[in-house]
Amino acid sequence: MPDRDIMELRPEQLANLPANQPLQPAYLIAGPETLRLVEAVDAIRARARTDGITEREVFDAENRDFDWQQLASSFNAPSLFSSRRLIEIHLPGGKPGKEGSEVIRAFCAAPPPDVVLLIICNEWNKTHHGKWTDAIARIGKIAIAWTIKPHELPDWITRRLHSKGLRATADVVQQLSTRLEGNLLAAAQEIDKLALLTQGPLLDLETMESCVADTARYDVFRLAEAMLSGQPAAAVRMLAKLRAEGETVAALLPILIKELIRVTTLAWVQNSSGNLAAEMKAQGIW
């Protein structure tokens, strides 16, 4: 059975690998948050270059007809340009299939000393775990770039500011979170701009307000989530933003009504002592 207790790193941890710690034989970096994913991948590539790994091979395993045996042969092929190689497998869907899983597990069972394997996936959830991820965890590291949730954003912003040599008060961090919610790339760009414009390590409210645009990005699904989770202020802010972007309230109603019907149905099932878990599964919630 797959090990469900695999320790996952935050992607940001890969940017701070100790200089005296060699690269692991294998890395799996996956998840839907593009910025975190890309920066983690770039960190491994940069560390590989620092360690003298100049040869990089890329295999796109997105298609079902991908030749996994060609990849397996490449693992044991001699390096042409350097003593070590970085081999990347781009696997957007996050599922290598039976053959791919066997190839990855075989690599992990006896990793070639001259190869660092980097597997990159975009889609990821608990169903993607399997024997192949267990094998990677035994010899390497797994980092998952989960989407930053609204309540997690202040901590992410604080860490990002610290990485740029800046400190900010709690009210500044909260205002940044409110303005940049839903758009991590914009948040990173604004923090980079603040690092250039701020005089000294302390970021004050005046500097922040003059530099940061209201770049929060919302959509109707997040609006529905805010409404159903009892966040009226956030829902009003999202609705105002959507209307400013040209959305009409009438166009939003079908999706909102669908969510209300779903919640009403679940409430009825629960109140009538029905099978709530079965109804949630039928509704596609899990």
TrEMBL record:
Its EC number is 2.7.7.7. Transmembrane segments: none annotated. SUPFAM superfamilies: P-loop containing nucleoside triphosphate hydrolases, post-AAA+ oligomerization domain-like. Keywords: DNA replication, DNA-directed DNA polymerase, Nucleotidyltransferase, Transferase. GO terms for cellular component: DNA polymerase III complex. It catalyses: DNA(n) + a 2'-deoxyribonucleoside 5'-triphosphate = DNA(n+1) + diphosphate. NCBIfam families: holA (TIGR01128). Belongs to the DNA polymerase HolA subunit family. This is DNA polymerase III subunit delta.
